[in-house]
Amino acid sequence: xxxxxxxxxxxxxxxxxxxxxxxxxxxxxxxxxxxxxxxxxxxxxxxxxxxxxxxxxxxxxxxxxxxxxxxxxxxxxxxxxxxxxxxxxxxxxxxxxxxxxxxxxxxxxxxxxxxxxxxxxxxxxxxxxxxxxxxxxxxxxxxxxxxxxxxxxxxxxxxxxxxxxxxxxxxxxxxxxxxxxxxxxxxxxxxxxxxxxxxxxxxxxxxxxxxxxxxxxxxxxxxxxxxxxxxxxxxxxxxxxxxxxxxxxxxxxxxxxxxxxxxxxxxxxxxxxxxxxxxxxxxxxxxxxxxxxxxxxxxxxxxxxxxxxxxxxxxxxxxxxxxxxxxxxxxxxxxxxxxxxxxxxxxxxxxxxxxxxxxxxxxxxxxxxxxxxxxxxxxxxxxxxxxxxxxxxxxxxxxxxxxxxxxxxxxxxxxxxxxxxxxxxxxxxxxxx
Length: 433
What we know:
Blueprint: H1 2-27, H2 34-39, H3 43-52, H4 60-80, E1 86-87, E2 93-94, H5 96-99, H6 101-118, H7 139-144, H8 163-190, H9 198-218, H10 228-237, H11 242-257, H12 259-266, H13 270-290, H14 300-322, H15 332-342, H16 345-359, H17 364-367, H18 369-385, H19 401-406, H20 426-432
Antiparallel strand pairs: 1-2
Helix pairs in contact: 1-10, 1-11, 1-13, 3-13, 3-14, 4-6, 4-13, 8-10, 8-15, 10-13, 14-16
């Protein structure tokens, strides 16, 4: 059963990721710059902005072309039929609708589009309603795609960088880090795990940075940081095992070499793409707001900060997008930097919320400190009762923990599981662990 759960969650993750990347690839020539592609992967403010703008990842046309059926199937399988198990021989049961809601909806919808295309139900004219639902639009790309191709660093030329691009992308980096920290806490919340400690967050951010550097060397255009859609996939499939990540990483590595499989995933009809986006983006936004459940929201302080940050994060970039010449400092370089920074929804909204939350005075209950102290206190009690010390064992490394716990200097390494900060001496911290 564990293997089945791992495969189910991994394949679901693969499906959602390919749906996103395939959609971006098919639409990247439609007024989407490189910075917009990266900003599209940051937290719920960007997700709401994507749904708001018509020239971003547009859901209006796929929704009009039949993805309502796929949306209906996803909702039916994940929210209504998840409590029913499929009986198997031997008195066993399999939670099919719990583990495969997205795959079932995608498979049924794709099969329906294939059947209707075969019988000639869809038009051949691209300008006619229903054309985008055809399954033979990318047959030539599938035939021309190589079976195997091994990527290597510098395959598209040597990487280049400009000062405006580096400074401008700092806003995207900051926004991505903020999103990743929020993803870690949201994932812990959904999977009933303790809040991630400092060393786990440091380790996660560091590995995402290494992944981005490798992606730049290999010329990969898709994001390699934490993706909020995977959090929604965890909520839908009820599977949060790390074995799922290992299995999914192997599938991604295999699919990156087998180009026929990549071309087949990109050929998914747009109604299905729009349906999955419509069902997952809403959950991403709700997961972002779920973090507010640990603070006292119904106070004038928090209501003002939340409302103002969301309004400014959505309004200012939209205003700059509709008025491209409003920023004119006399320097093309400075104009580019300001346009990139102020055009990031996540950066503007997050910066406004961060500044106001630190400047406006509030009680510990309004700041959420009471909840965190209670949570960490309960974690320490459970860990002490089991003889584990005050460290959540679920954030340990899968190997080498005995050596790490015996070596005192590892407590100075920010990503070590024994790291608790630089305020105490290494020996005292080692003894605590």
